[in-house]
Structure formats: C-alpha cells, structure tokens
Design brief:
The chain is α+β, with helices and mostly antiparallel strands. 42% of the residues lie in helices and 17% in strands. It has a domain of 57 residues. The two termini are 20 Å apart.
C-alpha cells in the first residue's frame, strides 16, 4: 500500500524541531569524522596495530597495508587484456577469500536545503570465491 502525502506531511510536522537543530549537529559530526579519518591516515603501522589490539570487539575490517596512503586511497593499477585473464587473476589471488562490495545511491530533498531527509538505496555483492558457495547479490 502506498503512503499518502498527508501521512508524509504529518510525519514531517512532528519532526519539525529536529530539522531546526540538524544543521549544527550535522556539521559537528562531519568535523569529528574528518578529524578521525585524518588521524587514521596519518597513524603509523605501530599506532594502528596498537589501537586494533586494544579494541578487538570494535574492529569489522583491517587495513591491507601497513601504512595507509594519503587520504586512505590505494590504487591497485590492475588491468587485464580480457575476461579470461581477470578470471585467472581471481583464481590465483582470491580463491577462498570472501570479498564484499557495497554501493549506494542517495536522493536528497533538494540541493538548496540541507534537511535530514533522504531516500537511500544500498546494493551489495558478497562472493566467497569457492566452488561450494554461491555469491550473494541484493539491494
């Protein structure tokens, strides 16, 4: 059953006070995130390993590199002449290694407004790279 415009309007009216405080709290959270990302990218391998060891329950993933590159971006520079070459590379390097990719899209209410309202869709692809298990692809 589709939602009625009057239902959306009623929900938005109830949330009006939150919209007024959104901008300042959003900027504060963004500053905190950017500071944490900069600190992470500038951390030495020993500092990072120390943090990971001290917080074992808070780690969902680990860096592949000892030292993170600037801004945390590492380009692979991989390339293949054809699909068969790429499949051979996967067989040699990823057999038995589960990979997980996520992509999302977001539709904001307007470019002129910064209200905390958006429509978000996330798609993911999980591949265990084994003959016993199939990949999972969903939204």
């Amino acid at each position: 059953m589709a939602i009625k415009p009057s239902q959306i309007q009623a929900i938005l009216q109830r949330k009006r006070k939150y919209f007024r405080t959104f901008e300042s709290s959003n900027l504060s959270a963004l500053d905190t995130y950017q500071d944490a990302w900069t600190t992470l990218c500038n951390a030495s391998a020993n500092e990072l390993q120390g943090w990971l060891t001290a917080h074992p329950g808070n780690v969902g993933a680990r860096p592949l590199l000892d030292n993170l590159p600037p801004q945390g971006i590492h380009r692979s520079h991989l390339g293949w002449g054809n699909r068969e070459h790429s499949l051979q590379w996967v067989k040699e390097h990823l057999s038995g290694v589960t990979t997980f990719a996520v992509d999302g899209s977001q539709i904001f209410s307007s470019k002129d407004l910064s209200l905390p309202i958006a429509l978000v869709q996330v798609g993911w692809f999980e591949n265990p790279h084994t003959s016993e298990a199939d990949f999972t692809k969903d939204i």
